Amino acid sequence: MTIFVVLSIVIFMGNFYQDIITHDDRFHSPLRCADVELLEPVTRAAVASIKLAAKVELGMDLEVFETFRSQARQYSLYLKKATQLPKVGTHGYGIAADFCKVINGQPSWAGDFTFLGRLAKRFGLIWGGDWGEVDRPHSFHDYDHVQRCSLEDQDKLFAGTWYPAPLLVS
What we know:
Structural class: alpha+beta
Shape: globular
Largest sheet: 5 strands, antiparallel
Mean pLDDT: 91
CATH class: Alpha Beta
Strand content: 5-15%
Distance between the termini: 23 Å
């Protein structure tokens, strides 16, 4: 069975990070944020499509556990050894989300998350299980993570010289 998910999205023609995220009250917050409104619109639509496809095709309830992450939260997680990265990555730019399964009403990361890789690719995102490079070995895997940025574009993103286009172009 093939499912086509059509979502209406408002195309934001500026730089979502500079125009929206840096002006949000949560920009420096140390708290977890799961607000999908802090995902740039194409990423937001893809994340919604993943949730819907998981429910319809797999009978699986997914929750968006984290979207935007501030540098303060990232560093706090690093000090607690909950992440290997001291500096915030793509979460800080509104182009990444972490999922969890919902089992008996509770968030869970138990079991296999390879389904997320297939769904991420279908909806134009990169999965943290293979970082969009399935034939290349990786020292770091983030199986519940999706992002709208290839590894090769990350350095440009962090340098402020690249941000994803407001439309998904394949």
